[in-house]
Amino acid sequence: MAAVRRARSDELSGYGIRRLRDKSAREAIIHSIGRDFNLTPILAQAYFSQVSTYFSQHADITLNTGEVCYEAVSAEEPAGKHIALASRVSVRLRLFDPHVDLTVLVERGLAGLRRHRLLRMTREAIDQGALLSYEDLAMLLTTSPSTVRRDARQLRRAGKVVMTRGWKHDMGPGTSHKAQIIDMYLKGYQFTEIELKTNHSEKSVRRYLNDFVQVVALQHQRFSVAQIRQVTGFSERLVREYLELHEHYRKEQNDRLALLVEPACPKKGALPEVTG
User: Please, which domain of life does this record's source organism belong to (predicted)?
Assistant: First the structure.
């Protein structure tokens, strides 16, 4: 076998395969990185791989008609963190939906259409792990931040939750929106009701429920709050809120809680997806 491999290697060398591979765009970029930053070939290749990952996360996005790509702050960042230090997420937002927006314009006017788009884009952002600020929305909607704040207040008075970075400030030290959604689910609200009341998609609600199950399962395996925070990447505040909710509804012998977490607690393997 060794002789066959050597023969095969000699054959490839005869065709100049290795030299041709070295002439690829990838190798040219790696070579330039190594030269420009005085890096070894291994480090230059590592830099190239990491930059390629960043590009796929932030630039390689396919848009449909009426959509825009926008850099927003990650939803996991605390509200008070300076924007220059916050991690970003590239999100796809529907600026114009011809199947819906024209009808909304006729029925509600320009102000109604603006508020409709505000709700839609904040919901799409949170579904993709980001939060838009009032300034982001003002730029996207070609209006002023004060108008966006006024629209948000009006929508909240109508019972809508407008998911913006400023909304975190508005909440103050109270319960996070994720814990509120879990609380609503355990109280018996259906997915459609939670969607309407919180402006979250069913996808987001299910994701929060699975996160809740993960936290409870880790506690069942005797992980401390600090360990759960490290494993999940959730904030300590959110972990404690989830555990408090679990303890409260466990004492009440809540049927939904039992169906949700009991299958995950006896074992240490993969957690089940929420299906109901």
Answer: Bacteria
Residue 11 lies inside a defined structural domain of this protein = no
Distances (CA, A) of 36 to 32, 75, 115, 198: 6, 35, 49, 50
Residue 252 lies in a domain: yes
Quick check: pTM over 0.85?
no
Q: Please give the tally of structural domains in the chain.
A: 2
How buried is residue 162: exposed, middle or buried, by Cβ count under 10 Å (0-12/13-18/19+)? buried
Q: Are residues 164 and 194 in the same domain?
A: no
Domain that holds residue 131: 93-171
99: Cα within 13 Å, side-chain hemisphere: 2
10-residue stretch averages of pLDDT, the chain, 276 residues long = 54 50 70 85 83 66 82 78 79 91 93 94 89 92 93 86 70 67 91 82 88 91 90 87 92 89 62 44
For residue 240, the model assigns a pLDDT of: 92
Rounded to whole angstroms, the Cα distance separating 73 from 2 reads 54
pLDDT at 9: 53
Res 140: pLDDT: 94
Q: In terms of domains, do 153 and 189 share one?
A: no
Residue where a domain terminates, one of 121, 155, 171 = 171
Half-sphere exposure of 23 (CA within 13 A, CB side): 5
The answer to whether residues 97 and 156 belong to one domain is: yes
Residue 53, amino acid? T
Residue 68 lies in a domain: no
The C-alpha torsion from 172 through 178 and 182 to 188, rounded to 10°, is 80
Residues 61, 67, 68: CA angle, nearest 5 degrees: 65
Write down the pLDDT at residue 53: 73
If you compute the radius of gyration of the chain from its CA atoms, what whole number of angstroms results?
A: 25
Pair of tokens at residue 275 = 């299906």
